[in-house]
Design a protein that fits this description.
The chain has 416 residues and is an alpha/beta fold. It is built from 15 helices and 14 strands. Helix 6 (113-125) runs parallel beside helix 7 (140-148). Bound molecules: pyridoxal-5'-phosphate.
Length: 416
Amino acid sequence: MAKTRSSLEAAGLTQRTANISERVKKIVVSPIKEMRILAEKVPGAISFGQGMPYVDTSPEIKEKLIFALKTKDISKYSTSPGLPELRQKLAERVMKKRGLQGILSENILVTVGAMEGLGAAIMTVINPGDEVIVVTPGFSSHIEQILLAGGKPVFVPLIEKKSWALDANAFKKAITKKTKAILLCNPSNPTGTVYSKKDLQEIEQLVLKNNLILILDEPYDFLLYDNAEFYSPASNPALKNNLIACFSFSKEFAMTGYRIGYVYADSGIINQMMKVHDAFCICAARISQEAALAALSISDEFTKDLVKKLDYNRKLVMSWLDKMPELFEYQVPKGAYYIFPRYKIENLTKKNPKLKDINSFDFCLKLLYEAKVETVPGAAFGPAGENHIRMSFGAKPEELEEGMKRLKKWSENLTQ
Ligand SMILES: Cc1ncc(COP(=O)(O)O)c(C=O)c1O
């Protein structure tokens, strides 16, 4: 197991500690972004790192945004919760997406990506010492956000052999008097699992029975493969008062750089979250709110095409991993654009004793510097992620092809 949770530290960076708060000293930059920082300094590196779709934002969105820039005064702040027209449209969107009724703009907060929504949600409901149940492997930034709020992430492992399924029983066992919330990302980053309705409904019952808050992170709800069926607990009206659902424009509309997302929750929760949102950002960037309005008006052809392209990439990466059974085994991702292979430490050790116990941080750094391939250490996603790497397949197919070629060549030298 790695001694650090930071790729930058594993690569030798030392951090200033004088005059730095305990709160901040406890957290790391998510290794997803750290690997990007390190890879930027490796000329020609191919990225399987940060999750970004390679396609550009739809030209229709861009044209509408240019029109808005020319015809409206969008140089001013919006009110803190977001443009009224956008909140109204997002309320309608949540009703349509989740088959709900009665959602009002008061139930919506426009945020700086899903990320700020998640951060504001955690700051709003978590007191220092509160426990938040997260899965492992689970999204690395959730862990940092919980720690930043003074909370304690309690890790519940997914079941790898069952394609990284939820273990509802383990959730039940993890609940204590200090449990305040459960945080779930579905489809999963980093494993690509689309959780089953049955397992999610068991978790809903635990939430209601123990009066917890269920924080949902669903930026990949549109990105499903092999006819996988997606179910969201947000569609259960009984959960209305115990739910904060965070959404994003980043992936669905290829707008990662616009930094725009939204939250759906009970208006009482939204009003409290607004305090955090105001304290940190005042409002989401007005120009990005206009872009979000434009995105909501285009046909769904753009997103359908994006899903097809990413499915092509998924198959490409899997076909290459299939050529390296000595080094990797993996579960087939059914959603999102990540795959989470395990590197077979037993084979590595047999063939090269120097690699005995190589942790995922060192594995990814070696891969970056020796093969010029950027991936993310599995340990960034909690303890069950160790001895795995996360690979995003959002990049251009020709880049992925080149990256996989490099990986194969590198792996042959490693295991010979
Ligand atoms: C699970 C998950 N949540 C949140 C985010 C952040 O999304 P946004 O760009 O909307 O802040 C990401 C981005 O990769 C993600 O994978």
